[in-house]
Sequence to fold (313 residues):
Amino acid sequence: MGAWLLRRVALIGPTLLLVSLLIFAMQQLLPGDPALALAGENQDPAVIAHIRQTYHLDRPIPVRYALWLEGVLRGDLGQSIRIQRPVADLIAEKLPVTAELAGLALLVALVIGVPAGVIAAVKQGSVIDHSVTLAALCGLSVPNFWLGMLLILLFSVELGILPASGYVSPGESITRNLTTLIMPAIVLGTAFAAGIMRHTRSAMLQVLSADYIRLARAKGLGEARVVLRHALHNALIPVVTVVALNFGALLSGAVLTEQVFTIPGFGKLLVDAVFNRDYAVVQGVTMCSALAYLLLNLGADIAYLALNPRLRP
Fold:
């Protein structure tokens, strides 16, 4: 177990290095010149040359990558060209916002997806099963931005009970913080609930056909006890991986949802950085997202082994 964990941790470094190479190379394909974008209306050649020299934009691409990588190894992710602030400070400011939104969305997904998947598996082939499956397909098909605008129209414009956009930190007001996040959390949570429901249903169907489930029923145990105590515990094992990867996707930035609800999180930060050719911010956010994916995937594997000791190496 210890050797396996060390091997997995050792793979994080090379994976992040590969991600940084891909992101740095792809950024060079973006149209436009960050020096011209930063200069704005002032097209003085001396000003543009100073900007290029300050941010190493006049150096060859391999040299710029080496300078950036050297700074990352020292814990310096660079400085935003547009905002004139360290990238690490921007990430530390925006990450808690997206993490809170992702946590609430995942809670919504679990509350909806897991019970719906269990009910659909227990009632396999019934009207309930088909209805839940149809609802899951609708949840996967409906675009987030469209659902978000519908919720704004209903709860903000028509009913006036929730704010249409914006964000209030928990330090200012817990109540206002939750009211600003409830609609975007529902928008993100319903989409992920559909995936969780399908995986839960599939896993439950496999477990319910196992021999030990038939034995439990033969002993006279109640159906509720068989399903909740014996079947659900084992069925949730593969769902752990799905939940971890979904949470990683949420942390990487729910770009459209944050744009619709004007939430200052990772997604909005990344979109603004791409439009402004702010290379340091794009690289920093992408590397942070990749690291979150790797750590969550590692945590999912550890949880998988903890729930099922037979899979331990």
